[in-house]
Amino acid sequence: KDIGYSDIMALCVLKGGYKFCADLVEHLKNISRNSDRFVSMKVDFIRLKSYRNDQSMGEMQIIGGDDLSTLAGKNVLIVEDVVGTGRTMKALLSNIEKYKPNMVKVASLLVKRTPRSDGFRPDYAGFEIPNLFVVGYALDYNEYFRDLNHICVINEHGKEKYRV
């Protein structure tokens, strides 16, 4: 409803957001099919890297998404796995705004309650969780556990075993 009956460009943040994005896009397509107006959806992908082990590196790397100029004039829905401090998403939004999209909304499956938060809140959030490191449903710990169909907390023993 927020976007209206305009076409939507879903920008999936890889790698952790791919399962949520696929499920969300499928759900939105079903809503569109069952309404009196059809909303066209396109999906593009961008990869952000900001973690090593369970620690934020403090800097965000954008990998891929070389031609973000295609977002100009579009209604963009950024689909993210987890918003923690909000710094990574703010950096991405700042980068995207340069290309003058018509509208940008952020949908995040999870929002962490963390004392390090800068106050950023996504437009749409699935669940709010404690400040713990979670894996599964495409969320990883050093590329492990993406294949789990559920989300769970990785304990200290697991962190040590899969540390790089």
From TrEMBL:
Claim: Nucleotide-binding is one of the keywords in the record: yes
GO cellular component, one term: cytoplasm
Gene: PRTFDC1
Stored InterPro entries: HGPRT, Hxn_phspho_trans, PRTase-like, PRTase_dom
Gene Ontology annotations of biological process type: IMP salvage; purine ribonucleoside salvage
SUPFAM superfamilies associated with the record: PRTase-like
Pathway annotation from the record: Purine metabolism; IMP biosynthesis via salvage pathway; IMP from hypoxanthine: step 1/1
EC number: 2.4.2.8
Name by which UniProt lists this protein: Hypoxanthine phosphoribosyltransferase
Pfam annotation, one family: Pribosyltran
Signal peptide annotation: none
Gene Ontology terms, MF aspect: hypoxanthine phosphoribosyltransferase activity; metal ion binding; nucleotide binding
PANTHER family, alphabetized: HYPOXANTHINE-GUANINE PHOSPHORIBOSYLTRANSFERASE (PTHR43340), PHOSPHORIBOSYLTRANSFERASE DOMAIN-CONTAINING PROTEIN 1 (PTHR43340:SF5)
Cellular localization per UniProt: Cytoplasm
Domain Phosphoribosyltransferase: 3-141
Source species of the chain: Macaca mulatta (Rhesus macaque)
Family: Belongs to the purine/pyrimidine phosphoribosyltransferase family.
Keywords associated with the record: Cytoplasm, Glycosyltransferase, Magnesium, Metal-binding, Nucleotide-binding, Purine salvage, Transferase
Catalysed transformations (reactions): IMP + diphosphate = hypoxanthine + 5-phospho-alpha-D-ribose 1-diphosphate
Cofactor list: Mg(2+)
